[in-house]
Amino acid sequence: MSDQLKDTRIVFMGTPEFAVASLDALVKAGARIVGVVTAPDKPAGRGMKMNESAVKKYAVEKGLHLLQPAKLKDPGFLEELRGLRADLQIVVAFRMLPEVVWNMPPLGTVNLHGSLLPQYRGAAPINWAVINGEKETGVTTFKLQQEIDTGHILLQESFPIGEDDSAGDVHDYMKEIGAKLLVKTVEGLVAGTIEERPQESAIGSRESAIGNRQSAVGNQQSAIGNRQSAVGNEDATLLKHAPKIFTETAKIDWQGTAFDIHNLIRGLSPFPGAFTYLQDKVLKIYRSKKEIAPPTIPPGSADTNGKTYLKFACTDGYIHVLDIQLEGKKRMTIEEFLRGYRF
Fold first, then answer.
1. Nearest CA among 145, 149, 86 for reference residue 112
2. What range(s) does the Formyl transferase N-terminal domain occupy (predicted)?
């Protein structure tokens, strides 16, 4: 990293483990982190023990200056943030920032987003890319502006999604790829070698490169209005969105296809988990495989040999459940489950 970059004062904002990879990459690259902003400690668990964010734990370990504001418009926090005299702010998996915060540093505020913008703007880009059966996704660094996830693109990098990859798998790939891209972005911004570009300019080229396909997800998608919206004039390109995941999104509709149901299961694994009901109890499914064959039982009906498999019928075949959690029980493989469950 250049001496010029080592002199650049950076404030990092983030909360979960996903953000730690980016902060760690910047620290290891020699960036000058003058402050770290993360969520306040919160009580959690049966004992209501105060829970620290992953970013806080890392910042404390590295001796970084830490800020934990309850409200981002709090005058005391804003005064302390201004006092850090940041040249640049970086946001990874944090709260929505008010303009008074993101507009503060002279080099602006950079966000790392878990999709190839402008596709999958919103709170759950990893989940929706997998749910929709995308074969490729990626990460984007961009400048924050007034509207959510709409700022000018700085850099992007894509990577493939395997047909059985879960959202958790994609999350793990993405945090490492995103961390490297973020370091490259900061280096380019400070050196003045990155040309910002509006997101609209990325629509056509990115869509043709990805060959992105939106698949129907039945009631799960329509329930929260995750509909495609046309962009452009004669040659309109469809934008796909990534709204927050709600309970109705996670409920499996067995009237769907094996392809769509399998994608829903892996797109919501490990959290919050796609679910159905087994003898009136909630059954979360974390891993599955498809069987395409004319079903001999009604959609949603279960079939098992009591030892090695449990499958549910859908419109064009079956979904074999491989890794599950029954209400009130721990997560387990299907073999473990069948050893202790009687139908």
1. 149
2. 9-186
Given a contact cutoff of 8 angstroms between Cβ atoms, the answer to whether 180 and 25 are in contact is yes
The pLDDT of residue 220 is 42
Cα distance between residue 292 and residue 281, in whole Å: 27
CB atoms within 10 A of CB 138: 27
Main-chain dihedrals φ then ψ at residue 93, nearest 5 degrees? 55, 60
112 is an annotated ligand-binding site residue: no
pTM attached to this predicted model: 0.88
Is residue 75 part of an annotated ligand binding site? Answer: no
Question: What does the longest C-alpha to C-alpha distance in the chain come to?
Answer: 69
- 208 annotated as a binding-site residue: no
In terms of DSSP bridges, do strands 109-113 and 317-326 run parallel, antiparallel, or are they unpaired?
Answer: unpaired
Nearest to 177 by CA among 56, 22, 285: 22
154 is in an annotated binding site: no
Select from 142, 125, 319 the least CA-distant residue to 212.
125
Q: Which two tokens stand for residue 77?
A: 């926090």
- The C-alpha atoms of residue 91 and residue 109 are separated, in whole angstroms, by 7
Please give the domain boundaries of the chain with CATH numbers for all domains: 3-210 (3.40.50.170), 251-340 (3.10.25.10)
Distance, CA of 260 to CA of 147 (rounded, Å) = 31
